[in-house]
Write a structure and sequence with these properties.
CATH architecture of the largest domain: 3-Layer(aba) Sandwich
Largest sheet: 7 strands, antiparallel
Helix content: 25-40%
CATH topology of the largest domain: Rossmann fold
Length: about 450
């Protein structure tokens, strides 16, 4: 594993966690101004550290982790060093984060409070990560009295993203693949064993949604860094069915993008560019939006920030410059504004413009040079511009129409089934927008829609 970067995009705590999870062996070099320090990893464990004054051990590791605004590089060649750190990497980082937190609380002059916030964030993040890793190992160890183990059940679907595992009382576990239902055993799950297995999976998962409209309860189950499943509990009268389906990785999502990658790149090639992604129903919009975001994350154009109601978990895993925030959370909306100013994302994506706060954040990011994708759910693509304008105060609309003329670079449409169309907005249309006239844009969209239907 060879990597390099800057701590403004990935903190040393996050980076060390990535190296630990991947069981990396090698040397992490950290440089700031004239100082240079090192962390030494063996099979994902920090075995020693050397600070910029050539001191070693745990105290040196603390000084390395406290380095801010630094560049780092990791090489997989591990020099011959003595093991001077005996505790686990997780305990080491937790203790360092705690110490830095305590120190920052007694020193109000450090970076105007930024240092304290970063230490608190690091402590919170590490606590969350370590708790999750511990729960992942426990979920696989569970086994019902009939001998159904979670590890074996997930093995039946882990290599087939299109397959679904079904669990219910008084029936054998079943897997549905390509329309065929295959029993996994001739034994049945007794009601008490089913309830025990269901409760264990739900407790081990995160993000439960108890829907009042009768749709399933939905959870996300993490099993290691690569296996992520959507867990649903379906209610059918007195019967409950638990389903598990493996979520696709970013690479598979990007491969399903309904537009050619070069087309997407061409309409987003300028700083401050805006692309409207239009679909006529929420589910289709979610799928197209997520596919486009997966492609941009994999392409790595720079820091990526996105606002969506729900993301496929793991989409940004291992991608340091990705910030995926929820448009349903008020604190995420508040945090996004600060992150835009601090990070200046290269790409800002908003799933649906029906949240005025999210859309205003996209405008803020574009003014700082971000390329933006804004999803619009409208019964026809021709209604998309008006959907956006409807979310603005009447006094803001004329100014925004002119703003569209300077930044609107393309339209992406997506339909159920994954078909799509993409095109760059004509120069004459943009000039008309600068003059306050939206009619040429609507005419162009209608013309493109007619060509596609033909």
């Amino acid at each position: 594993m060879e990597l390099s970067g800057h701590t403004r995009f990935l903190s040393l705590f996050d980076l060390a966690q990535v190296l630990s999870v991947n069981e990396a062996t090698g040397m992490l070099k950290v440089e700031r101004d004239e100082g240079r320090a090192y962390l030494y990893f063996q099979d994902g464990t920090i075995i020693n550290a050397m600070d910029d004054e050539h001191r070693e051990g745990e105290d040196a590791a603390k000084r390395v982790f406290s380095m801010k605004d630094a560049e780092y590089s990791f090489a997989s060649d591990l020099p011959s060093v003595a093991r001077r750190i005996q505790c686990s990497t997780q305990n080491l980082m937790m203790e360092i984060a705690r110490q830095l937190d305590e120190e920052s609380a007694t020193d109000e002059e450090l970076a105007g409070g930024d240092y304290q916030r970063e230490a608190l964030q690091a402590t919170s993040l590490l606590s969350e990560l370590f708790t999750r890793f511990d729960s992942e190992s426990k979920v696989l160890a569970h086994r019902s009295p009939e001998g159904f183990g979670v590890a074996e059940l997930l093995d039946a679907i882990k290599d087939s993203p299109d397959s679904t595992l079904f669990l219910r009382a008084e029936a054998s576990p079943e897997v549905q693949v390509a329309g065929r239902v295959i029993p996994l055993s001739d034994k049945r799950l007794e009601p008490r064993a089913f309830e025990n297995l269901r409760d264990h999976l739900v407790r081990s998962a995160v993000g439960g949604i108890d829907r009042a409209d009768g749709r399933p309860e939905e959870y996300v189950l993490h099993v290691g860094p690569e296996q992520i499943y959507r867990l649903e509990v379906l209610h059918g009268g007195l019967t409950q069915i638990v389903t598990l389906r493996r979520l696709p990785p970013a690479e598979q999502l990007a491969a399903a993008m309904p537009w050619a990658p070069e087309t997407l790149a061409s309409v987003l090639d300028e700083p401050g560019a805006l692309v409207l992604l239009v679909a006529n129903d929420t589910r289709t919009l979610e799928n197209g939006f997520e596919a486009a975001c997966a492609h941009l994350l994999l392409a790595g154009p720079g820091p990526f920030m996105g606002m969506a109601r729900r993301w496929t978990p793991g989409l940004s895993r291992g991608r340091a410059s990705a910030m995926l925030l929820s448009s349903n959370r008020a604190d995420d909306l508040e945090r996004a504004s600060e992150l835009i100013d601090r990070v200046s994302p290269a790409v800002f994506a908003v799933e649906d413009c029906d949240r005025p706060e999210s859309f205003q954040l996209a405008l803020r990011a574009m003014r700082r040079g971000a390329r933006a994708i804004v999803g619009v759910c409208a019964r026809s693509s021709a209604f998309a511009p008006h959907r956006i304008l409807d979310e603005l105060a009447p006094t803001e609309r004329p100014r925004f129409v002119r703003y569209l003329g300077t930044c609107l670079s393309g339209i992406l449409t997506v339909r159920p089934g994954g078909t799509g169309r993409a095109w760059a907005v004509e120069e004459a249309t943009r000039i008309a927008l600068i003059g306050g006239d939206t009619e040429p844009l609507v005419t162009e969209i209608v013309s493109m829609e007619s060509e596609r239907d033909a």
